[in-house]
Amino acid sequence: MDLLLPLTILVLMLDTPCGAFGKMGSNVKTAVFLSPKFELEPGSVANKFDYGVDFPRGHIALKSFNAEVVDELGNPVPLHETYLHHWVVARYYQAKNVTTHAGYDGHRVLHQSDYIMLRNSGICQRNALGQYFGLGSETRGTATDVPDPFGIVVGDPAEIPDGYEEQWLLNIHAIDTRGVVDKMGCTECRCDLYNVTKDENGEPIRSDYKGGLLCCYDETQCKVREGFEGLKRSLYLRYTVKWVDWDEFIVPVKIYILDVTDTVKIPDDSSGVLEHDCRTEYEVESFSSDKKDGNDYLHVKRTSVPMQKGGYVIYGVAHQHSGGTGSTLYGKDGRVICSSIPKYGKGKDAGNEENYIVGMSTCYPRPGSVKIIDGETLTLESNYSNSRGHTGVMGLFYLLVAEQLPHQHFRHASRSSFFTNINSLFE
Ligand SMILES: *[C@@H]1O[C@H](CO)[C@@H](O)[C@H](O)[C@H]1NC(C)=O
Ligand SMILES: *[C@@H]1O[C@H](CO)[C@@H](O)[C@H](O)[C@H]1NC(C)=O
Ligand SMILES: *[C@@H]1O[C@H](CO)[C@@H](O)[C@H](O)[C@H]1NC(C)=O
């Protein structure tokens, strides 16, 4: 089987469609990679971490990242068979004098002292939501392009410490729901369906925790219908990265991920150090008619978080799970910064699976038109239908923010006709 499919497919080509700026659009490079293999059988869970995965190298600006689960023949696998709970891509510096080694599951790991994690620009606490990219079931139908002349700049040799090199970590969490007794319950990681009472580290899970990632860690098993037979199969995350080589015309964007579960503490003193507490997941209790708060069948969760540094919003998208009905990020004065609405599938095929979120709408404000002020407190609102209860849901908001617009970025550069064109487009 392996012979049919080299472990890494690398397709390098020049994109034909031109962006707003001929120069940049025509220089976009595309590569398609396969993640290391993971294996699933009916009801089983894979939560794999792979250090040092294939990724474009050098001083570049990332322009998009998309992914999907495929089988050994390269066929897309639908969500009702393999539910893609999430994939996450993180960046780190690895000491050059060390190498990855196989972990308990054969996937490549590194000793913690041998690398330096590089998190995005915030805003959660140290270890939470520091990824550069990450999506879930919606990945096939969600735009991730960074418009020209903006880009996520990585691989700057001037920033990489001596003795280190830049590497990428891929985390894939997938659940095989073929033949399970309750597909939605398994995808929502309901502890009773996994018969789990202790977490991955053997610590007892508190009794009021009904479901979420603590109950569907790597190699756990969701309940399968009696007598159901299904083969173990090998799967991959096929991911497509687009980028341009770095040059001075690229305007960098910062990545922020906001979480509706964040209960940030704003200090009374002037230390200015905010204590974020992003929990990533939350529970939506089912509607009960004796609780007359707000809309029937709508669970609304909100949090307010200060952004120490602001800028111009270039891209925005929310991440929600099944049951989600939309999410909005508001400025301090109540203006809408971005609204992102899920699209549900209507059929059986990969990319259009009924009852699953198969895409999230995105925001591409005209650069300069949506500004977050330094220190502004934003309010994030995440809505779910609560006609039934949901465990382990998420309400994240991913933002790309430019601290300068092109004409500001280029102010001191030479006055070629290229700049004049850019200036006239953005002023
Ligand atoms: C590898 O390099 C790092 C950073 O230069 C250093 O701190 C560490 O001691 C080295 N480790 C080994 C095994 O040589
Ligand atoms: C659930 O777990 C308990 C304790 O780990 C075990 O004794 C029991 O057999 C399991 N039940 C099922 C249905 O697997
Ligand atoms: C979320 O619910 C609130 C309160 O009902 C509503 O005002 C808002 O428009 C909803 N947002 C989305 C994106 O559906």
UniProtKB/TrEMBL annotation:
Signal peptide residue numbers: 1-20
InterPro entries tied to this protein: Stress_up-reg_Nod19
Tagged with keyword Signal: yes
Alphabetical keyword list: Signal
Entry protein name: Stress up-regulated Nod 19
